[in-house]
Amino acid sequence: MPLYNFSAGPAVVPHTVLKKAQKEFLNFQGSQLSVVELSHRAKGFEEIIQEAEALLRELMDISEEYAVLFLQGGASLQFSMLPLNLAQKNKALYVNSGTWARKAIAAAQTIDSVTVEVIASSEKDDFHFVPKINSELVDQKAAYLHITTNETIDGIFYRKIPKVGKVPIVADMSSNILANDYSTEDFGVIYAGAQKNMGIAGLTLVIIRKDLLNQEVIFAPMLDYSLQAKNNSMYNTPPVFAIYMAKLVLEWVKEKGGVSQMYHNAQKKSALLYEFLDHSQIFSSPVEKSDRSLTTIPFVTGNPDLDQQFIEQAKKEGLENLKGHRSVGGMRASIYNAMPTEGVTTLVNFMKKFEGENGGK
Ligand SMILES: *Cc1c(COP(=O)(O)O)cnc(C)c1O
User: Fold this and answer.
1) What's the farthest any 2 CA atoms get from each other in the chain?
2) Which among 27, 174, 240, 287 would be 20 to 30 A from 359, CA to CA?
3) Residue of 43, 103, 160, 172 with catalytic role
């Protein structure tokens, strides 16, 4: 029986990527060294990081106006690095669209020299939609406007990136990078933890417009974007294995048709599940139709005991990690790029069967 991993992160990695990593693990390209034993200053690793960057630039159409950084500390460290680098002695604007946005806001609020202003929120509606921005509230002198393009826990996403004048948009794209038709040039900064849709934990990607580097602020060197950029992400030892895995994932995305194909697949796969949810007698989606995520899909029965039974029985069918986030309960199916369509059809078929056995008509 095939197993399908619906975990939100660390998440499913394409099987062919895992196989390739296994094959190269003990002897990287005839070197007799494992890929994890290579010096980050050696030619072998230099090629890996350069290829990873070149692939990413090609796939996301990233121009030379942007620097690409391979960092550590997770998307969560970016919640602090962003305001420290870009907004000291200035104002930073935020959209409070869900659980992750709220964390980004809370992190920025700990920095005394940064004024945090939340210009839109859907918190009192339990984050069931993307809050609308009133463009008059966008202070054109602000350092940036922060959005979360996909709220992993609440299951909403930005179909379109808002237009806010000349204020740079800074985006946490952790759970839908490489799965949408966004234009990189609409953003000042894009950041993402790699363990959702780009590989494994340990790597955080930052794509930053070069005019946003070299800010005159003083703080810990390791947290300085411009220092990291000057050193090509190798000021200190980078997460070599996670960068290698990202390179393999990016090769896989390219081979499968690139980001536009991934976006097409995400629309198709998510539609299978939403179509079922909208006609189901016992399951439903809590999210407004227009803003429903293509990659992280929460659903509920409204009965916590039934939810629990569903999660347990699904596991026996090889449908793993469907439990919703502990903060919201219910279920969640994360269907990132590496989740095959068969995984989603198997899930939907099991949901139909479960419904038949549990009061559905
Ligand atoms: C998972 C996630 C994070 C946190 O990522 P870490 O790499 O664990 O710090 C932040 N934002 C979003 C949208 C996420 O999905």
Assistant:
1) 65
2) 287
3) 172
User: Strand, helix or coil at 72?
Assistant: coil
Atom of ligand 1 nearest to the CA of 150: 13
CA–CA gap between residue 308 and residue 136 (Å, rounded): 46
Nearest CA to ligand 1 atom 13: 174
The encoded tokens of residue 170 equal 């800074």
CA pair distance 102, 187, nearest whole angstrom: 20
252 is catalytic: no
* Atom 10 (ligand 1) nearest CA: 75
**10 Å Cβ neighbour count for 3?**
11
Going residue by residue through the chain (361 aa), what tens digit of pLDDT does each one get?
889 999 999 999 999 999 999 999 999 999 999 999 999 988 889 999 999 999 999 999 999 999 999 999 999 999 999 999 999 999 999 999 999 999 999 999 999 999 999 999 999 999 999 999 998 889 999 999 999 999 999 999 999 999 999 999 999 999 999 999 999 999 999 999 999 999 999 999 999 999 999 777 767 889 999 999 999 999 999 999 999 999 999 999 999 999 999 999 999 999 999 999 999 999 999 999 999 999 999 999 999 999 999 999 999 999 999 999 988 889 999 999 999 999 999 999 999 999 999 976 5
| Catalytic status, residue 210 | no
Q: Is the CB of 76 under 6 A from ligand 1?
A: yes
* DSSP annotation of 284: B
Asked about 172 being catalytic, the answer comes back as yes
In this structure, what token pair is assigned to residue 48? 């890996």
